[in-house]
Amino acid sequence: MTTAEPELSSRIWTVPNVLSFLRLVGVPAFVWLILSEWDKTALVVLMVAGFTDYLDGKIARKFDMQSRLGAILDPMADRLYIVATIVCLAMRGILPMWVVLALVLREVFILTMAPTVRRHNLPLPPVHFIGKAATFNLLYAFPLLLLAEIEGAAGDLARPTAWAFVLWGVCLYWLAGLLYAVQVREMLKVVRARAV
């Protein structure tokens, strides 16, 4: 028995939407802070963004405030923070180019399957827990990499932990991509078998 997806309302002015909008507004400030090497303040902005991301989802589910606008704003804000963080950390020389390339190439790998999914009208495969674990690792890695740039005991302690999250995140990100390809191939087999 499958549970029905929650009905999305057309409401605009909800608490979760305001929180998502504030996160979006914070992206340019976050970029400026990182590039200006105001690492402590950038770290605070990133932590607030992460907390509001958790909070808006929790509020939306608990108080039945899920909306079509929120379904767009929330992932858009998440993606923008991830992209902004990767680009800015690479520009600062904190994140090596191999990490950037590994993450970009994985996205390209997923995109190569889009025409097949569209042509055969396949549903999007469900998000695997490995993909969620990869995102979790990367979202923890980036603030820790920023913290590692701050001199002192906190930075020294954060550095090895940050790199552990980076390495696990990249590996799991690719494993999730390969599992996505397997899911698409299996769905394609079913479609072709029905067509025979």
TrEMBL record:
Keywords: Lipid biosynthesis, Lipid metabolism, Membrane, Phospholipid biosynthesis, Phospholipid metabolism, Transferase, Transmembrane, Transmembrane helix. It is a multi-pass membrane protein. PROSITE patterns: CDP_ALCOHOL_P_TRANSF. It is found in: Membrane. The chain crosses the membrane at residues 12-35, 80-105, 126-150, 162-182. GO terms for cellular component: membrane. GO terms for molecular function: CDP-diacylglycerol-glycerol-3-phosphate 3-phosphatidyltransferase activity. Its main location: membrane. Belongs to the CDP-alcohol phosphatidyltransferase class-I family. PANTHER family: CDP-DIACYLGLYCEROL--GLYCEROL-3-PHOSPHATE 3-PHOSPHATIDYLTRANSFERASE 1, CHLOROPLASTIC, CDP-DIACYLGLYCEROL--GLYCEROL-3-PHOSPHATE 3-PHOSPHATIDYLTRANSFERASE-RELATED. This is CDP-alcohol phosphatidyltransferase family protein. It comes from Dermacoccus abyssi. The lineage of its organism: Bacteria, Bacillati, Actinomycetota, Actinomycetes, Micrococcales.
